[in-house]
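Exam review. A common question shows you a sequence with its structure tokens and asks you to describe the fold in words. Practice with the pair below. Do the first one on your own.
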Amino acid sequence: FGSGVEARAIDIFQCARDEYHRCRGKGRTALILACISLACMSCSVGVSDTEILNAASMENKYRKNLNLQKKVIQTLYHSRNGHVIAQPKAEDYCVRICQIMNVGAQVTRLVRQQAMRVASLEHLNAKSCRMIVAVSIIFLVRKRNLKIDISKLCDAMSMTLSLIHI
């Protein structure tokens, strides 16, 4: 995920480790994975919790434990450092998705601008970065007749067409 995500995950884990003195087994694994997930989210790296669980060879049934640990860590981090873990930005996430799809710099710039516009809409500010980027790309494909393969988009986003609401 990169050194920035690694450093961020270690920082979050240090904060959580001070509070958890006896966390063992699956709870500790969930704690570590929660730190990685929060670091990816904070650095706008588009990695889902499912992908993190798969990479750690954990079953999806541990997602509840992962989400619980994320909530606890965010609360601890806020109370200790006095600030909230930064939320991801759709415009940063879209650059990564465009790179995965091998889209040119000009199209990436258009998608980034559209993602910024969509993310600033009040009724869409609770949507995930993944959804905002997907909607932005679909909008530009339709409006500007861009030559982007929608199946590549679905693969890069780990989504289906029905999920994007086309």
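Now try the second one, then compare your answer with the model answer below.
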Amino acid sequence: MIFGLFVITLSYGVSFLFPKEIRGSFFIVLSLHALIILFYAYSGVDLIGATEDADSFYKHAVERSSDIGNLNWSINSLSNGHDFFKNIHAILQHYFSGPEKIISYSTTLLAWSLCALILVKLYLSICQEDNKGAIVVTYIYALTPSILIFNSYLLREVWMSLIIFSIVYLALKVSSHSKKLLNISLIIFLTLICILLHRYMVVIIINLLAVILLYDAIDKYTWYPFNNIKLLSYLSVLLIGIFVVFNMELDSVKYIFRNGIIGSIDQYMIDLVGGHGDGAPPARTTYGKTFDKGNLFSIVNVFLSYQFMPYPWKVSSIIDLAPLFENFLRGGFVILFIINRKRLSITQKMNMDMIFLIWLSVEFIWSVGTINWGTAYRHHTVVYGLLVFVAIASYRNSKIK
């Protein structure tokens, strides 16, 4: 319990890293998240969604904590995307007098507080001195139902968010030539950690870095704006990185080699429709297999289903109203960004286009491996903060001008 309270106190200490005009807002939303986490940790009551995964992570961590000398740290084991997470929490439970839920759940609060901090810093680096806009981003991000729910469970999504937000922020710092070598080193370190958090995070990270490098190679934001030397250099670096990754003993890489890219998408969806491939029954919220490997345009239907299911006529439970509301909310943010994008300066437009493309491409990757809107509701949280940022930043910039 002492460790849990220490980490919660540390989370509140993050407020001092915010500009003083924003600290009060952050303190309010952090307190709400802290109350939810304390409720999860001590009440024994589970709220909607992902309770099985959260319980599984905690129970496995407790089981492993009794014999941490035999934790498996091999790449082959860690590449499944959940053993690394369980091993870390096993160590925490072992050394801080577990088993206690608050030991693990408190780390979720710390990760979320750092996510909010990075988003605010990202906002202020592009919309300088607009503290009111940063407050709006903080409130919208913090109070969105999916963030309140899933970023308070013992789940990996909040850590994925933190790493992706951090990489984006560091990339903007690199482009401004501020502590370039240090920031590049941190990006490499975070990349290596992130691929251990989910089996297919390696695909998302390669995509993320590709978008960042593509935009760094831009000289002028016009037709064919690229610096050819940079573009070829970055392409070479990515190809080398992909070659190294594809020669590692990663589960996801083996799956792709065995089935091919299109075949992997098709087979993965077939397994999910059949009950997640583990014998469990299909979820109530399953919208079915929407990908047809004989028709590549079906990928559009996959993405739209991921973004907008449940459609209003598919709602069959009061619980479905939360994802339905957020589907409209995300659609509204996309429209808000597109409408106000033209009023941005060239530098702002480049930076926000890059971040929007990262959101769009990461969402697209998640969509090809998701066939029910319950899981989609949870996966949307990983890069949701980036969408909130570009929407509010473009709107506020327009209003200020």
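Model answer, second protein: The CA atoms of residues 70 and 233 lie 43 Å apart. Residues 101-126 form the longest helix (26 residues). Full marks require stating both points clearly.
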